[in-house]
Amino acid sequence: MMRRIIKILIWMVLAAWFVVILGFVSGEADQVLCMRIDVVLSDTLDNRFVTDHDIRAMFRSQGLQLQGYPMKDINTRELERLVEKNAYIRRAEVSTDVSGRMEIRLEQRIPLLRIMPEGKAGFYLDTEGEVLPLSDQFVPHIFLVSGNIKDADGGIGASTQLKEIHRFCTYVSDHPFWSEQIVQLYVNRRGEYELIPRVGAHQILMGSMEQWDKKLRNLEMLYQQGLSAYGWNSYKTINLKYTNQVICTKR
Question: Which end of the chain is less packed: N or C, by CB atoms within 10 Å?
Answer without folding.
Answer: N
